[in-house]
Design a protein that fits this description.
Blueprint: H1 5-17, H2 21-28, H3 33-42, H4 133-144, E1 162-164, E2 171-173, H5 186-192
Antiparallel strand pairs: 1-2
Helix pairs in contact: 1-2, 2-3, 4-5
The structure holds a DNA duplex (11 and 10 nucleotides).
Organism: Paenirhodobacter populi
Pfam families: GcrA
Protein name: GcrA cell cycle regulator
DNA sequence: CCCTGATTCGC
DNA sequence: GCGAATCAGG
């Protein structure tokens, strides 16, 4: 494979979206992550735009011990507007993963009490329960940066949290790095596995 | 071990 | 220019 204009464009786009070199390589096909990284450097777009690291992937603060190049101002390349997730139909059903911690789930007695539905595209959930606003925000943030992978791409260590309506095209799995031994990424683990203590219902 | 990006250097 | 090998690190 060679670096055709199209491939370079996709590389640039993905790199600026914060995708990792390996993810980009997989997407492009025919190249390794090393090839991608090498190209990225040759293109001179090493330092990605600002914050946009994929959760686990650390931005790696590079103090740059001074190389040799005059390295001028180096204006940041115009961030391309990503057509990614526009307004989503906001479905909400979904195959419910089987979370649950050891303790008894203890059915919430009060059926009355519209608990915060936790936003729109919140799929699973053991039962109705509340999710802290912080966690919720975290989840939403993560879902924006999810890798949106397909069923076939799930591996031992990718988050298997479903996002979207399985009955539509708009369905995919989170795909971010899963917590060791867990089926989901950090953010999704936090909503999937909630200790009893955290779900104490505060009637009303 | 899994994964990241950074660098080097023969081709 | 390219990218495998290697390095450094989380």
């Amino acid at each position: 494979m060679s670096w055709t204009d199209e491939r370079v464009e996709l590389l640039k786009k993905m790199w600026q979206e914060g995708q990792s070199a390996s993810q980009i390589a997989k997407e492009l096909g025919g190249v390794t992550r090393n090839a991608v990284i090498g190209k990225v450097h040759r293109l001179g777009l090493s330092n990605r735009v600002e914050g946009a690291p994929v959760t686990a992937a650390e931005p790696a603060p590079k103090p740059e011990p001074v190389a040799e190049a005059p390295r001028a101002p180096e204006p940041a390349p115009a961030p391309r507007p990503e057509p990614v997730a526009a307004a989503r139909p906001a479905p909400q059903p979904a195959p419910a993963p089987e979370p649950r911690v050891e303790p008894a789930p203890a059915v919430v007695p009060s059926m009355r009490k519209q608990i915060v539905p936790a936003g729109q595209p919140l799929p699973p959930q053991p039962s109705l329960n509340e999710i802290s606003p912080e966690t919720l925000a975290s989840v939403r943030e993560v879902e924006k940066r999810s890798r949106k992978i397909s069923l076939m791409e799930l591996t031992e260590r990718t988050c298997k949290w479903p996002i979207g309506d399985p009955a539509t095209e708009n369905f995919y799995f989170c795909g971010l790095p899963s917590q060791p031994g867990k089926p989901y990424c950090e953010a999704h683990v936090s909503v999937a596995f909630q200790p009893m203590s955290a779900r104490r219902d505060r009637r009303r």
